[in-house]
Structure prediction request, 276 residues.
Amino acid sequence: MKKSIPDKETISKVAERIESYIHRTPVVECNCLNEIVSAKLYFKCENLQKAGSFKIRGATNAVFQLSNEECENGVATHSSGNHAQALALAAKRRDIKAYIVMPSNAPSVKVDAVRYYGGEITFCDPNLNSRESTLKDVVAKTGACIIHPYDDYRTIAGQATAAKELMEDTEGLDYILAPVGGGGLLSGTLLSTHYFSEKTKVIAVEPSGADDAYRSLKEGRIVPSVNPTTIADGLLTSLGERNFPIIQKYVEEIITVDDEYIKEAMDLIMSRMKLT
Prediction:
């Protein structure tokens, strides 16, 4: 595993490495939303990304950085869905096995997608301790190489390419808003912004029912996420040890929003975009 924070050259090389395996997703505007906020809003549509999310960026970078010896026994991870799908697809492209530990309450559509991509699933109880212990057992049996969903500099560098593309496809961004769960996307976004658009400020957004990043930044140490409750099911994880120092150094602030506001905002965005 790469042991240092990705630099500008590394992220540029990663963008080249994964280019043929991902979509360069579109950046769209909505005139109605622009009028409401009296500003220009840009949406980087990673919902249209291969395997359904930005996670394919980090997973692909990590898998294709492995030597033949490192990946001869396949790769493994724990994930509730998005990273699981991404790693299964990346492994399939390299023609290696993917062993995925998923919580028993993972959405069936994501379970089906992992299987479709050829991933071998082991279910566990829906908590972090069970995920980690089950993954440890799987790796002991298979010898697979662990690709962490976010606490891995290879993953971070891959996720950084989304913001790099955004800044290449727009001009003079004042702010970037990025969600934060484990911190893979946020730390990658912070690094790309620092290297490629230093005047742009990054604000992290987190559900109030899963606000461990907000509390961690305030206390200056990682505060684990305990019994988080939010409809934003992709943001239920605790911050990674490699992610937190990057967030501490570069994030402008972390704001929290409750689930009711998330629902209202999504309904507004969907309704207004239909009018664009």
The CA atoms of residues 124 and 130 lie 6 Å apart. The first strand starts at residue 27 and ends at 28.
